[in-house]
Amino acid sequence: MSEVIQRTANGVDVISLDTFNCDRRTLCIRGEITQESAFEFALTAAYLNSLSETEAITVYINSPGGDIDAGLLMYDVIQASPAPIRVVALGTAYSMAALLFASGLHGRYLLPNSKLMLHEPLLGYPIGGNTSSIKTISDDLLATRDKLNTLLAKHTGKTREQIEEITKHDHFFTADESVAFGLADEVITFDRLVKEGC
């Protein structure tokens, strides 16, 4: 875990980068989205809301995606947080991470060379079992696809049909294409991010 050094009136403190960021009302979605990372995200967001329901929270995203149910927990937090949550893509936001990025209600920013990627839900394990079990898995996967496509349509202003067409295969968006498609609000530079804390 990365650490930072802070100078205080009592000398020097070494704290984790996560603690440093939390003190600045910043959360990170990095690496694969898991049940554990989603639970920690929800707890930290709840803590930040307990400190202030009016001061903005910034969520930085650099993730290949991951567990859909875990991602939907993060989605629920972003949507219902009393404190406004703005999102910033640093590098890549693929799959579930792209949906989380697109769902930002209080600003969706990306750096000029960041990329988003959308696709249909994938099975993360081999299929086995009897016909009824396989049908149940298939029905659940189709229902999940419909739910995710509905959410993407809501946050992009596109129709369900447009979303279904774009997610039939891995579809990569540059920063400018992300804005044009309605996945993002603005492309910003790193110096602006540092100065203004977007």
How would you explain this protein's 3D organization?
This protein has helices at residues 17-23, 35-51, 68-80, 96-102, 131-156, 160-166, 175-181, 190-196; strands at 3-8, 11-16, 26-30, 57-63, 85-94, 108-110, 115-118, 171-173, 186-187. It has 198 residues and is of the alpha/beta class. Helix content is 46%, strand content 23%. Strands 3, 4, 5, 6, 7, 8 and 9 form a 7-stranded mixed β-sheet that branches. A two-stranded antiparallel ribbon has the order 1-2. The protein has one domain: 2-enoyl-CoA Hydratase, Chain A, domain 1. The model has no long low-confidence stretch (mean pLDDT 88). The two termini are 24 Å apart.
Which descriptors would you attach to this protein?
globular; single chain; 198 residues; 2-enoyl-CoA Hydratase, Chain A, domain 1; alpha/beta; seven-stranded mixed β-sheet
Cα gyration radius (Å): 18 Å
**Mean pLDDT score:** 88
Please give the share of residues in helix: 40-55%
Shape: globular
pLDDT under 50 segments (min length 5)? none
The CATH superfamily is known as: 2-enoyl-CoA Hydratase, Chain A, domain 1
How many E-type strands? 9
CATH class: Alpha Beta
Number of helices: 8
Terminal Cα span: 24 Å
CATH structural architecture: Alpha-Beta Complex
**What's the structural domain tally?**
1
Share of residues in strands: 15-25%
Content-based structural category: alpha/beta
- Please provide the ordered H/E string of secondary-structure elements: EEHEHEHEHEEHHEHEH
Report on the biggest sheet: 7 strands, mixed
CATH topology: 2-enoyl-CoA Hydratase, Chain A, domain 1
Family: Belongs to the peptidase S14 family.
Pfam families: CLP_protease
InterPro entries: ClpP, ClpP/crotonase-like_dom_sf, ClpP/TepA
Protein name: ATP-dependent Clp protease proteolytic subunit
